[in-house]
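Aim 2, interim progress: modelling of the 6-O-phosphono-beta-D-fructofuranose-bound target.
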Amino acid sequence: MTKWQALKDHHQGVTGRSILSLFETEGRAQAFSVGADDLVLDYSKTNIDAASKAMLLDLAKVSGVAEKRAAMFGGAKINDTEGRAVLHTALRAGPEAVITVDGTDVMPEVRATLARMAEFALALRAGRITGQGGAITDVINIGIGGSDLGPVMATLALAPYHDGPRVHYVSNVDGAHIADVLKGLNPETTLVIVASKTFTTIETMTNAETARAWMAETVRDTGAQFAAVSTAAEKTAAFGIDPSRVFGFEDWVGGRYSVWGPIGLAVMIAVGPERFEAFLAGGRAMDDHFQSADFAQNMPVMLALVGIWHNQICGYTTRAVLPYEQRLSRLPAYLQQLEMESNGKSVAMDGSALPVDSGPVVWGEPGTNGQHAFYQLIHQGTRVVPCEFMVGKAGHEPELAPMHLLLVSNCLAQSEALMRGRSLAEATAIMAKKGLTGAELERQARHRVFPGNRPSTTLVYPQLTPFVLGQIVALYEHRVFVEGVILGLNSYDQWGVELGKELALALQPILEGRESVAGKDGSTQMLVGLLKV
Ligand code: F6P
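Predicted structure of the complex, ligand included:
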């Protein structure tokens, strides 16, 4: 019997058991939670018991998580469908770190680029780098996917620390996006960062051209108000961006893992290099924890095992990320790319079909807003949605502390309600107090039953500082890594996005009327007919 099957069998045996009953064992909350520095992950409100925990830990062990972890941190080419190392951790490694790829220490270059970024950001923030109209007031980061979601998420998350120029993001090739951002900006005091690892992504390059044309209407030397972040130095030069304004990184940083380096330039400009360094330090602290803690006390490992339990073992196909922190409003979108682009695959490393389901659908919204929208389904729908709550002990608005308490109480209430539910007897008692009787009492009571026994985890942090944000992002990166290793897939390529890109390119001349639509399927032919200009 495989370890997967053994876990599934174990699950079958405990499906009817209430999670609440597990708390009859003293110390359940402490035994089924894990700390990393000042973060605590509570996974006690899941149906994982001592036996399944041991089986999951064994699965991690035999899947080679420790060996792969050493290989990743050591610069081995674990992204073997692209022949690349996976070293986003190098971008946040400490001053003493030596990390070699193909026999060369990559750290001097990483540090030199970080220092150049800091110099650039400081000069911009101090008004030493100016536009035609004086000090730069606005920065636009043009990028998409990993060249957008991370910096957007981090900029919003760190709003209380934002004391640099205003930062805007443009990603969509829908002209509405850039049009709305440019509206109201002064081209003479705006700096554009073109952020693209490959510098070929059509959305980004199209938006970059649009921004340059907008700027060129009044600015004589547009090049002086452009910068680039890319691995493709020749392409940035061909676009006309001065090499002194280009911040490079290597192909061993995946797009969705790139916020720690030059792709985070806009964040650094917004909050300053010191706070950006604190963000890196948070990621580094999680790296240290991930590399040193025993699996049972290892937060990324345990978060991954909870994920595997819910998705591959219990068969819950989605996972909701629910930060009780308005400033983490883009974290679910960020994690969507991180998790779904990394582990949304059906082929194992060796080319065979995955023997189990790939990673889950990840989605979410900040609480409490989600409570007034989709929590209805989470509580009473027929499908179980494991929820990942996160909440800080303190906000950044001490004068609004009572509001923060309300936020926290809502967060805790949701996980409690999901687990506890409300029985028919309880619902009946409530409705009887309202004077209902007989069949109508029973009918009304049934609508008010909460099945309960719905699993959730809660991540608690002291306050959403740059350091804590770094810890959280690195936690999820390593969670994805561990899940990917256990599933036996390559978390670091993304071939699944290619076909759509190719077909979009082929459709362009058809939509322009330069090529015939014949050969396309009937639906596409009809849609082309409707949309052709
Ligand atoms: O299309 C997917 C993708 O390749 C992502 O992996 C990446 O983050 C995004 O596009 C943007 O790519 P680039 O930074 O090269 O423009």
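The longest helix spans residues 466-487. The chain has 20 helices and 15 strands.
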